[in-house]
Amino acid sequence: xxxxxxxxxxxxxxFIALLMLFSCNNDxxxxxxxxxxxxQLSVTANEMVLEPSMYLNNFTFSWTTxxxxxxxxxxxxxxxxxxxxxxxxxxxxxxxxxxRYAFDLNIATLNQILITTFGAEPxxxxxxxxxxxxxxxxxxxxxxxxxxxxxxxxxRPLTTALYIVGDATPNGWDITNxxxxxxxxxxxxxxxxxxxxxxxxxxxxxNQDDCWCQDxxxxxxxxxxxxxxxxxxxxxxxxxxxxxxxxxxxTVNVLDLTISIETVDAPPFTQLWIVGDASPSGWNIDxxxxxxxxxxxxxxxxxxxxxxxxxxxxxxxxxxxxxQWYRPLIxxxxxxxxxxxxxxxxxxxxxxLVTEETAGRYKxxxxxxxxxxxxxxxxxxxIGDASPNxxxxxxxxxxxxxxxxxxxxxxxxxxxxxxxKFNTNWCEGTEIVAATPNQSITNTNFNYRHNCEGDDNKWxxxxxxxxxxxxxxxLDTNTLxxx
Length: 483
Known about the structure:
mainly beta; 38 strands; elongated; Immunoglobulin-like; 4 helices; disordered N terminus
């Protein structure tokens, strides 16, 4: 006897219907009686071509009561289904007990039985028989049977899982690590991916097996909003192309063979890192130094001292040299160029170049919304009535710099001062302020103040301290010397 194993998500659908059937009260069950009398099994149809669109429909078996020969004996019913040539030698069985006169078998479950239990081929008719047996509690009565002939043509079962794979996806062309799509709870034929897609291509795999000979869903050559089933990796390997990196929602329906690709108003990445021998990270891809996210989720900044060498910007996940990157359009790109492209893989590995002449402290601002980059030298300015610059924001003279070290020598008057790393309008950047209010110049502790947020503390130069001083601040070591 075969036992039914539900291996498809379609097979899960009938359980609700079955539970409802088994929980029916006696009045409901009596309504299922076709008629009292000799046992007779009836079915929805003796021949049927099954279709994927029928997955919510049922195939119904119903029967008459049979006769207990006026003995008053209770009657139990059993349904068997087997291939016609087997003579019920190894059937699928359903035991219903008493007071049951109909059985609904979900079409998706029936289709799964045909293929996995009886070895039927999709789109090929298979001949079956169904036999209903009525057994009597009164031992002197012989069981009664009714047999019907059936011919079903099954369909290829729809996939129970779907994965998005390609160089546009977070895990690239690593099929064993392809990104799983979310199956819709309302429609099991629908799968959704919400997330980042880079410039590049993608298609859909039905599993993560390490074989490009598996089944795929690829682009319909006549309609980019349609998919085709690419069995065994055969046929045209047409893929979808992402021209602009960003956040996307991709919805695939394997029943209707449709696809929807929509942009989502969200940044393509939530974290960026700098990698390269020109940066403090070196060529460490596992724990590189991170960019800082700004109030605009599409814009990231990073500040450090760059030394002679190369660098590029890692996006997505760390640890993958052939993962997602922001790279210049040409190799050894100069720092003044403002264009950048987002790509994945190792085939095109352009980097920025820092020379002996251009080495120094820089602030990198990357806008992932429009793929622009600004690599700007960092200046430090004294500002305040104690300094020659006064409070004239926009007309400040910078300190002398050497790498990460900034130096100024000149006359300090009695009054206040602090430092700023911008020379535009107030609150448009970072200031270096004293750690405490009205701090003496003998105390060199300091804090950073961004966009006017936080305490606006200043150093105070007394009349006795006024005169020539040398001020040295190192942004790598965060040290300040006032001599």
